[in-house]
């Protein structure tokens, strides 16, 4: 030290000497403060006297280390220290744990040594804090480190004392040394000296907690320490959830235990150890914790000398080093603990973890002994054990026990845990979800996800989890035996079970005695076994048996391979006994998973199992992801299996599972490398087998015919082979591989699917090889179409691939090739889609086929009429005259007798357009003859005739119409009766419908009043014209007096729909009928009142107390609609208060109310909608629902939107399709009943959950009104929808779209819209005759907003079939956004890619009248190839729309019924969805058109539907490619 240091040192020493020598306010107190500062532990002075304060306040209870310390002015003699410590010999059970010698002088080394020797003998720690005049001594360093605390102590305890003047200099001294450069090094030396043995019990306890927290925060450390990954605080591991059970363990770690033993019991893997560790971690301060494997309790030391066993553990768990000194010190502490009972807090807790070993006779004695010994020192024993062991053990324990039962997590808890890790629990299969309730299994699942062994939760299966559990058995410490040993045991038991089954044993088939099976006793309490009561027998559970059988199956296949036999050949035989257990599919899948995951499994065994698995029937779709993810570890095996499957002569039902797996994981580099190699190999296969081009086959066709065709095909192949040029032969020998297994067409198709979407330039040579192979050895079922689609829809590198392909076929240019090389060239040129290549291809193909006979196309329709009669510019062809003669001579009795079509029916339909166009009179004669014949019919023949005749109503005479009307009116059949009577009712309704257009308005209303049935078709009501004021009054008066409620409701409905002017008396009658006791009459009276707008009628409705709330959602649709409409009209007139009106109207009318009642009302409505959204989001049921569709509501409509129900279409399986086509009337009715019951259940659930918004359409206008009034609410709803699950969004899809469109400028709205595009709505909402999705129209109607404009353009170019493309173009035109379509067309054409050109042409073809579209179509007129096909289809579509417009104009201008009919026949043959565009823009319609148009409207809708159905299977006019070939983006 320098002079400055010495000065400050002296000043500080003087102040220390001025302190009182002992006590908390003297020098001893200062020592406690500085020691606490240096060590971070609490120190407390022990009381003086022989008992050292033995008052029950043990060292642990206060959380401090008790010490005594003395101050010496000069170096003490050894005898002085010995004398002072002598009385401690008499106090070997006191609190004192540390002796501190504090000296303001330097203590001699010999004195310090003597001090430590004495303290060591006593079991007390010794700390020397002395002074050094030449250096920074330990006491000075400690005081400088304590800094402010030391300064405060000196100031407080010298202030007011004689030596108070020393305070200032002492404080300056402390500040000086606190900044001294040597202080850090000296402080580190001092801390090293204050080891756990020296610093005392408080430090030991702190070290224990610090050490365990570190261990319990790392699975790696925990596995090393405990043999299992017991790490509740490892943030990378599974984050558990707090369990209330932890409170039951609280007193085992803090406070006073309520029992000697705490038994944590539960099944394997439920988290017993985890709960124990977590409970301890949650308590601070807590006891010293010692965690021991249960087997340590079996050691002799634990039984013979428990104190020594305990001390060794204490030293180890507090971070100490084993030594005599440490042992002696812990002996003293234990003696002190025994002498200071009971403690306020438990001092030490020993956990014997995993008491799952075989039960020994002395287990209870050992536990009782350990618990008793711990209780004597204020400690506690905790054990964890499985239920099966505890059942035998608990009754033999003498100690008091607290049981802490641990169960598996609930499903809700598992979902919460998964949600916390960002995993959508809804994607977890139910069986997997149940398995994940076991925390250990869930931990394994999370590990697999974290390590990217699986990418998504739906790729997990129960079998995968069980195998991973078995594989990690030893790693997780779950069982006392290794994974391989466990597997051998399971295999042994599984094989014995099989043997028993083969011996036809049935009793105790899965029960085994532990004496006979080594290792069974060790794992008997695991998840795979259940004990048999009253014995040492155990039953293997089904999942354990399946696991064992799967492992055994793999062993058997490996044995086949070792012995040079193909595992595939013996697999069926090996599986035969397993099949008898009805678990074959599960076992094969489990074996497949194990083999693919086990690195030691052979490729051949893996591929054999994969092939076997996909060959099984009825594979559950839930397993597809779990199967697919296996390809990541076994790609070569999957590809081998795929090759075997696709080269097999037999059909493999689930071969597409292999495609799904390979395609879904092909972005994995390892998987893609394997796929690339396999694809190159596959595309080089060729075969010269004549069977590849044969239509006839042995067994089905005559042997002679088969032989003849085989010889013919062989001759063709021989000719090709013999004609090969030298270059072609060389190419074949160097590039192709001959295969004797010639069934490889589907393998090539698989190859193309796997290449789809990838860059193809590197595969160009392989594609040329395939083309040459096909030309050399052609096949009927070769994937030519897929080959072309692969290249045409290549967006990754089309230009580069084309160049590489053209380079590849240059080998076959000119004389270098025979017809084989030239046909290979044609195939490549056709495939590129390029215009120049297509032209070159067709020229070459024309030359190659120059000697072949050409056959013209043929169509039955052209036989009837050689020109297209729908083209207004065509003139009459010669052949139509004969057709007309034949047409007028049709026997009407042979028409429309059955649901199916006879040859006469086909002629009647197919020849109609030509005959009607060019020989109208002949067409009329045939249809009028049918009308006369129908009146003579009965039953189904009459029904079918009436249905057929409806659209031809305008062709009938007035008298025919009246005769048909009378027949319809006379029927008393009802709609809600049995099938036969319901058919009669339908016949009657269609008869009235056919005739009603011929009547003047007055007679129409009279006709309705004369119908005897109980229900009138809405189509009839839509066809009505408004009667005069007097006629309406007269008919109303008559039905009022008749008291016939059916007629009353029918007439009221007619008035509601036709809206005649109502006299005062008419309004009075409606008012009276509002009070009718008949629900149907009241409903129609409500509708008439709402339509009239009469305030007196509306006031009557208000006063009636009518309320929509008691009516169930989805039921009483008309009453809810009409009543709500009336109340809304009343609210607009101020006849009812807003809140009351909103209370009483249906939620369906809230959107209309928001638009009609203004901003203030909209704010009130918004609050109610907010509640409705919350409740609707709470409803997530989606199962067993039919396909549902409804039109968008319109407040001006006479009827509410009705939900239509449809069964999902039959599967692609031909048997399902045939079953649907051939179903009987009874089967059809049963199917309809099932749908109705399902819908009824759905609406009941919605009503119960108050989730009516699912069925309600607020309309886009309504949502806009609500958001305009309360934009904050709109943003809040956007947030709610963004946070919702897909299941929730399905139900509220329409509301979410309307809201997102309304708030399109918001980023969250755009995010929601993007997501909604991928969510299928529960109810499809459509608009117009074309039934265009409402969401499509909503987007296009608001496409002036940039985000929506981008979405609309993207939708235009990413539609995957002509149907959806047509819908988008239609929506654009209907919304006035044709310009966006034109822009998109130009952008597509600019790309130069054939697929984009075809898309542009298709868009143009679906436009309405457009000069831009015409120019685009004309630009590619005469194009060949793929673009030529698209151009022709687009041009035809465009022209037909112009023709349809022309015929519709003639219909609207028709002056006679026959003029109308002629034009309608031609229109309904060609009209498509664009009908809704131009019907809105044309002028006034004639009276004839107004009268008869409703009769053809349904046929117009059917024709539009037919077009759309046909377009659904086409893209760019050609057959739609597989979805794999279509990119997500096209621009």
Automatic annotation (TrEMBL):
> What lineage is this protein's organism placed in?
Bacteria, Pseudomonadati, Pseudomonadota, Alphaproteobacteria, Hyphomicrobiales
- Report biased composition (Low complexity) as residue ranges: 1189-1204
Which residue ranges are recorded for the region named Disordered?
Answer: 1188-1216
Q: What is this protein called?
A: NACHT domain-containing protein
């Amino acid at each position: 030290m320098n002079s400055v240091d010495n000065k400050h040192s002296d000043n500080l020493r003087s102040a220390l000497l001025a302190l009182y020598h002992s006590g908390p306010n003297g020098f001893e107190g200062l020592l406690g403060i500085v020691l606490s500062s240096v060590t971070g532990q609490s120190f407390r002075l022990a009381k003086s006297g022989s008992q050292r304060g033995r008052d029950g306040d043990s060292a642990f209870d206060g959380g401090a280390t008790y010490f005594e310390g003395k101050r010496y002015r000069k170096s003490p003699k050894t005898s002085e220290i010995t004398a002072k410590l002598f009385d401690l010999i008499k106090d070997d059970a006191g609190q004192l744990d540390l002796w501190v010698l504090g000296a303001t002088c330097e203590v001699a080394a010999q004195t310090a040594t003597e001090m430590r020797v004495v303290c060591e003998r006593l079991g007390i720690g010794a700390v020397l804090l002395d002074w050094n005049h030449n250096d920074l001594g330990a006491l000075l360093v400690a005081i400088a480190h304590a800094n402010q605390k030391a300064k405060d102590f000196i100031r407080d305890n010298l202030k007011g004392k004689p030596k108070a003047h020393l305070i200032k200099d002492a404080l300056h001294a402390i500040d000086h040394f606190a900044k001294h450069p040597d202080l850090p090094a000296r402080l580190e030396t001092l801390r090293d000296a204050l080891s756990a043995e020296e610093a005392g019990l408080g430090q030991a306890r702190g070290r224990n907690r610090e050490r365990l927290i570190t261990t319990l925060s790392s699975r790696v450390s925990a596995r090393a320490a405990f043999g299992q990954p017991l790490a509740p605080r490892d943030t990378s591991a599974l984050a558990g959830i707090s369990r209330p059970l932890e409170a039951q363990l609280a007193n085992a770690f803090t406070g006073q235990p309520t029992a000697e033993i705490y038994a944590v019991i539960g099944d394997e893997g439920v988290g017993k150890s985890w709960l124990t560790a977590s409970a301890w971690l949650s308590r601070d301060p807590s006891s010293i914790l010692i965690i021991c494997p249960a087997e340590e309790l079996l050691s002799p030391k634990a039984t013979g000398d428990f104190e020594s066993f305990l001390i060794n553990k204490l030293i180890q768990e507090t971070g100490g080093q084993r030594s005599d000194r440490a042992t002696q010190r812990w002996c003293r502490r234990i003696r002190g603990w025994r002498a200071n009972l009971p403690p306020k807090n438990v001092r030490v807790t020993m956990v014997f973890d995993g008491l799952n070993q075989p039960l020994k006779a002395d287990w209870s004695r050992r536990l009782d002994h350990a618990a008793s010994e711990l209780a004597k020192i204020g400690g506690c024993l905790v054990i964890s054990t499985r239920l099966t062991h505890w059942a035998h053990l608990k009754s033999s324990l003498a100690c008091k026990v607290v049981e802490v039962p641990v169960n598996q997590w609930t499903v809700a808890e598992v979902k919460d845990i998964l949600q916390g890790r960002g995993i959508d629990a809804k994607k977890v299969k139910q069986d997997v979800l149940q398995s994940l309730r076991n925390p250990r299994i869930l931990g394994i699942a999370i590990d697999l996800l974290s390590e990217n062994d699986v990418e998504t939760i739906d790729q997990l299966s129960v079998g995968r989890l069980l195998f991973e559990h078995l594989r990690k058995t030893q790693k997780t410490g779950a069982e006392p035996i290794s994974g391989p040993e466990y597997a051998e045991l399971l295999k042994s038991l599984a094989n014995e079970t099989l043997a028993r089954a083969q011996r036809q044993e049935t009793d105790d088939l899965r029960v085994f005695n532990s004496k006979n099976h080594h290792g069974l006793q060790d794992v008997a309490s695991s998840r795979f076994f259940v004990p048999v009561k009253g014995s040492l027998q155990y039953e293997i559970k089904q999942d354990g048996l399946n696991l064992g059988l799967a492992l055994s199956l793999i062993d058997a296949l490996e044995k086949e391979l070792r012995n040079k036999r193909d595992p595939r050949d013996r697999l069926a035989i090996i599986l035969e006994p397993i099949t008898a257990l009805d678990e074959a599919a599960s076992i094969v899948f489990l074996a497949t998973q194990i083999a693919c995951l086990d690195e030691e499994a052979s490729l051949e065994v893996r591929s054999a199992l994969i092939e076997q698995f996909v060959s099984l029937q009825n594979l559950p779709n839930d397993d597809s992801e779990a199967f697919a993810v296996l390809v990541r570890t076994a790609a070569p095996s999957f590809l081998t299996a795929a090759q075997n499957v696709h080269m097999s002569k037999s059909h493999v039902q689930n071969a597409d599972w292999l495609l799904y797996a390979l395609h879904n994981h092909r972005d994995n580099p390892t998987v893609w490398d394997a796929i690339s190699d396999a694809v190159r190999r596959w595309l080089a296969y060729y075969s010269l087998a004549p069977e590849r081009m044969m239509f006839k086959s042995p067994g089905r066709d005559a042997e002679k015919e088969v032989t003849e065709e085989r010889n013919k095909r062989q001759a063709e192949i021989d000719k090709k082979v013999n004609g090969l040029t030298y270059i072609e032969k060389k190419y074949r020998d160097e590039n192709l591989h001959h295969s004797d297994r010639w069934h490889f067409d589907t393998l090539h198709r698989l190859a193309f699917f796997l290449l789809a979407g990838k860059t193809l330039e590197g595969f160009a040579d392989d594609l040329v090889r395939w083309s040459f192979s096909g030309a050399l050895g052609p096949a009927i079922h070769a994937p030519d179409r897929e080959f072309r689609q692969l290249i045409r829809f290549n967006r990754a590198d089309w230009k580069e691939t084309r160049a590489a392909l053209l380079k590849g076929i240059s080998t076959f240019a000119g004389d270098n090739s025979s017809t084989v090389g030239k046909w290979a060239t044609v195939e490549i040129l056709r495939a590129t889609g390029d215009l120049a290549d297509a032209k070159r291809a067709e020229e070459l193909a024309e030359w190659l086929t120059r000697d072949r006979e050409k056959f013209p196309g043929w169509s039955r329709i052209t036989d009837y009429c050689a020109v297209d009669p729908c083209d207004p510019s065509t003139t009459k062809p010669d052949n139509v005259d004969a057709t007309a003669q034949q047409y007028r001579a049709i026997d009407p009795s042979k028409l429309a007798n059955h649901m199916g079509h006879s040859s006469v029916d086909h002629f009647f339909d197919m020849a109609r357009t030509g005959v009607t166009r060019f020989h109208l009179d002949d067409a009329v004669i045939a249809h009028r003859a049918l009308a006369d014949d129908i009146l003579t019919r009965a039953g189904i023949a009459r029904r079918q005739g009436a249905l057929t005749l409806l659209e031809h109503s305008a062709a009938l005479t007035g008298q025919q119409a009246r005769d048909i009307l009378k027949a319809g009116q006379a029927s008393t059949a009802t709609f809600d009766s049995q099938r036969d009577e319901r058919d009669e009712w339908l016949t009657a309704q269609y008869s009235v419908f056919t005739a009603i257009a011929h009547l003047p308005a007055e007679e129409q209303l009279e006709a309705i009043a004369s119908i005897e049935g109980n229900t009138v078709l809405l189509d009839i009501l839509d066809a009505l014209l408004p009667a005069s004021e007097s006629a309406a009054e007269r008919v109303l008066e008559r039905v009022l007096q008749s008291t016939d409620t059916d007629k009353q409701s029918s007439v009221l409905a007619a008035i509601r729909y036709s809206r005649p002017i109502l006299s005062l008396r008419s309004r009075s009658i409606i008012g009276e009928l509002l009070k009718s006791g008949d629900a149907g009459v009241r409903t129609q009276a409500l509708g008439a009142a709402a339509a009239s707008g009469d305030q007196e009628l509306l006031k009557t409705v208000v006063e009636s107390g009518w309320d929509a709330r008691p009516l169930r959602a989805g039921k009483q649709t008309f009453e809810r609609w009409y009543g709500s409409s009336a109340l809304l009209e009343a609210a607009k007139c101020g006849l009812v208060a807003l809140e009351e009106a909103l209370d009483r109207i249906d939620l369906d009318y809230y959107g209309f109310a928001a638009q009609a009642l203004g901003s203030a009302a909209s704010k009130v409505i918004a609050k109610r909608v907010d509640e409705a959204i919350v409740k609707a989001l709470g409803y997530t049921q989606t199962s067993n629902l039919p396909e549902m569709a409804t039109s968008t509501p319109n407040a001006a409509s006479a009827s509410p939107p009705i939900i239509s129900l449809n069964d999902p279409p039959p599967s692609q399986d031909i048997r399902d399709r045939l079953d649907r086509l051939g179903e009987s009337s009874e089967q059809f009715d049963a199917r309809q009943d099932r749908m109705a019951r399902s819908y009824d259940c759905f609406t009941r659930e919605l009503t119960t959950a108050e989730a009516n918004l699912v069925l309600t359409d607020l309309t886009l206008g309504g949502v806009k009104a609500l958001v305009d009034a309360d934009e904050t609410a709109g943003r809040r709803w956007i947030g709610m929808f963004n946070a919702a699950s897909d299941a929730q969004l399905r139900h509220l899809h329409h509301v979410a779209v309307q809201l997102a469109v309304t708030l399109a400028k918001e980023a969250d709205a755009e995010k929601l819209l993007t997501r909604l595009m991928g969510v299928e709505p529960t109810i499809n909402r459509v608009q117009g005759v074309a039934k265009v999705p409402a969401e499509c129209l909503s987007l296009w109607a608001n496409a002036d907003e940039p985000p929506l404009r981008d979405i609309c353009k993207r939708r235009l170019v990413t539609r995957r079939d002509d149907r959806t493309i047509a819908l988008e173009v239609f929506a654009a035109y209907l919304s006035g956004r044709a310009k966006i379509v034109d822009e998109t067309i130009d952008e597509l054409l600019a790309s130069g890619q054939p697929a984009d050109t075809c898309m542009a042409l298709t868009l143009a073809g679906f436009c309405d009248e457009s000069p831009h579209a015409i120019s685009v179509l004309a630009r590619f007129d005469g194009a060949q190839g793929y673009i030529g096909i698209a151009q022709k289809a687009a041009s035809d579509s465009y022209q037909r729309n112009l023709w349809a417009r022309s015929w519709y104009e003639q219909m609207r201008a028709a002056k006679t019924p026959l003029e109308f009919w002629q034009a309608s026949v031609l229109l309904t043959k060609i009209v498509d969805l664009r009908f809704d565009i131009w019907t809105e823009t044309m002028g006034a319609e004639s009276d004839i058109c107004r009268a008869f148009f409703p009769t053809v409207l349904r046929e117009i809708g059917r024709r539009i539907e037919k077009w759309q159905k046909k377009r659904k299977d086409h893209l760019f006019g050609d057959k739609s490619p597989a979805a794999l070939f279509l990119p997500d983006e096209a621009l």
